[in-house]
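Hey, can you fold this one?
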Amino acid sequence: MKSIKKRLITNFMLIIVISVLTFEVILINFVKKYYYDSTEEVLTNQIKISTDFYSKYLSNNSLYENVMDNVDVFWKQTEAQVEILDLNGKVLMDSIGLQPKDSINTIDVKKALKGEKGKWIGNVPYDKYKVMAISYPLKSDGKIVGILRYISSLKEVDKSVVVVSLLFLSIGFIVIFIVGIFSVFLSNSIIGPIKSLTITAEKMANGDLQERNKKVFDDEIGTLSDTMNYMAEEILKKEQLKNEFISSVSHELRTPLTAIKGWAITLNYDELNDKQLIRDGLTIIENESERLSSMVEELLDFSKLISGKISLKKEYIDFKNLMGYIQTYMGPRAKRENINFVVDYDDSIKKIYMDSNRIKQVLINILDNAFKFTKDTGERVVKLSTNLSENKVIISVEDNGCGISSQEIPKVKEKFYKGKSSKSQNGIGLSICDEIVKMHEGKLFIDSCINVGTTVKIILPLYNEFQKEKFYGKDLTGDRV
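Sure. Predicted structure:
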């Protein structure tokens, strides 16, 4: 496996090398062009002086006569090789004594024959280095009578270009070396925190959730470090809540099981003839079995919710019948516990699209909590009310019980959380309610004040026929259309 550090250094160095070499090539070409242009400019100035002198003072004689009589005039202006050509490109005079048999037909000569300055760079048989040739027309009375050609070796120019190029390349390699060193330090500044994160994550994965990663820089890696530390803290909290939940559930299950076992042993005596005692024992066994069954059902619901296996069976229901069922279900208990249970619902709410069994479960769970936490003395009141607001149904459960502290309110809907009250059971009832309400696209809010009471509000969307068909694709019977 290729490490991030190697990839980072390799990619960074590749970018630097390509950038430096590209810059070097551009710079060297610029230097070469500068030296060549300078040589061309010198030759051009010299050849113009000579051609102007010819036009002013030597144009009365023929080109051949001038070559024979005034040859020094053409080459005393320059150190370059001088050639004089006729209109056919044949060399009439060469300052170094060359007399080629063939006519010269290079691009500079062709341009000079057209009356323009011509330039040619190439190789010649008598020099191993490249040469630059500048040609210019010789005129007499405005007519071209011949060509003056200056030829200069590029030996010294190319040597200068090579020297400057080597200097630039040396500087480039030094820059690459220095940047390479910095890239190592740069990669270490990135890889170091990542390695630290990896080590911390491995320790956390092995169960050491007390381990924390030290934040080095306030950047993306620093944010990741903070997130991982926060995750570890949350896992610890959840672990603690889970342990408390297991302990609580174990205790809650032990209580009814102990009662059932105790009464089963008592009723198993052959000598027992007290019918009232038998009836009391069987009643306790029945009640404790029912409580045990309720707890198991709640645990099963919770297991389905966290695994995502629970599903809703939504249909249009008569809201009045739903509220009537809740009143009938909870009424006897309220009377038995001397609680003033008030049910007040809005008659304008007719049909509502929901899973009635799940909403019943939510309301019964919340009312059960309200009954448990009402005042032990004085008037005990629990109110269930509903109203319609902006196409939403608001269901409220109010009690005048002991209340919930402001510190606990944000936590009471968390999984496994148990309040400080001894009446709290396994800590999953409200979390189940909250999940069911969310599955109905609704919200559950809790407002409470110590020693004053608690209000739980459930806000559910009220779908009309058009909206239901739009969102669910069903008709009033629940069949898909």
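Residues 86 and 146 are 5 Å apart (CA to CA). Let me know if you want another pass with a different chain boundary.
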